[in-house]
Write a structure and sequence with these properties.
It is built from eight helices and eight strands, in the order βαβαβαβαββαβαβαα. By secondary structure, the protein is an alpha/beta fold. Strand 7, helix 6 and strand 8 form a beta-alpha-beta unit. It is globular and about 60 Å long. The structure holds D-xylitol-5-phosphate and zinc ion (ZN). Zinc ion binds next to strand 2.
Length: 236
């Protein structure tokens, strides 16, 4: 199982964006998470194409672009052109989700569907095999630094069951209120990718904060392999 970390640049210091990009490049994090908000789909405006262009110039890791905008179809090509590797669009903002996902994939990007906290994972049952990843919002989208919604664990379990049943390779990404405290439980529930902004940038040293996510992951893997060895020995 993948255990990836995507760093949300929404919480970075925009006055020193280059430094934050360098920091993520040097870190053990896997992706850059870039939140695009239009002030209509969500009650906030973040940044747009020129900022992504600036980040793309320096970034040596994949750009995971999360569109919180109405009618995302209008901008699929534009985000490809500025270097998005993964592009996720909200279920709640798409009338023809099947067509939109195929357009994203035809351009060579990984296609993701995002669900707001109130949207049941079951709405994806007829599209799961077309989806490279599902991003479950674990806060109401629009702002960094909000509290994690506990029902997300339940949604991960149900989504994982759906993916396994469909024999699909779809990955699960979790976004909002993720921290070093809930990371293990989220990965254990079936998450493959965690997004973190506040937990990386708000306090302390961002590089160390990122490392903490990964240290816990490594420990978890070691414990799992020890348990597997113990089980194997006891059956011999
Ligand atoms: C919220 C954004 C998130 C946000 C996460 O609408 O989609 O990516 O930056 O921030 P934290 O980790 O601070 O909850
Ligand atoms: Zn996001």
């Amino acid at each position: 199982m993948d255990r990836l970390l995507s760093v949300s640049m929404l919480s970075a210091n925009f006055g020193r964006l280059d430094d934050s990009v360098d920091m993520v490049n040097e870190s053990v994090a896997d992706w850059f998470h870039l939140d695009i908000m239009d002030g209509v789909f969500v009650p906030n405006i973040s940044f747009g194409i020129p900022v992504i262009q600036a980040i793309a110039k320096k970034a040596i890791k994949p750009l995971d672009v999360h569109l919180m905008i109405v009618d995302p179809d209008r901008y699929i090509e534009a985000f490809k052109e500025v270097g998005a590797h993964l592009l996720s669009i909200h279920y709640e903002a798409c009338t023809h989700l099947h067509r939109s996902l195929h357009r994203i994939k035809a351009l060579g990007m990984k296609a993701g569907v995002v669900l707001n906290p109130h949207t049941s994972v079951e709405v994806l049952s007829d599209i799961i095999q077309e989806t490279d990843f599902v991003l479950l919002m674990s806060v109401n989208p629009g702002f960094g630094g909000q509290s994690f919604i506990e029902n997300t664990y339940n949604k991960i379990t149900r989504l994982k069951e759906m993916i396994v049943k469909a024999g699909s390779t779809t990955l699960i990404e979790i976004d909002g209120g993720v921290s070093q405290q809930n990371a293990d439980r989220l990965y254990a529930a079936g998450a493959d990718i965690l997004v973190a902004g506040n937990a990386i940038f708000a306090t302390g040293d961002p590089l160390q904060n990122i490392k903490q996510f990964k240290v816990q992951t490594l420990l978890q893997e070691q414990v799992a392999s020890c348990l597997a060895m113990t089980t194997k020995q006891s059956t011999l």
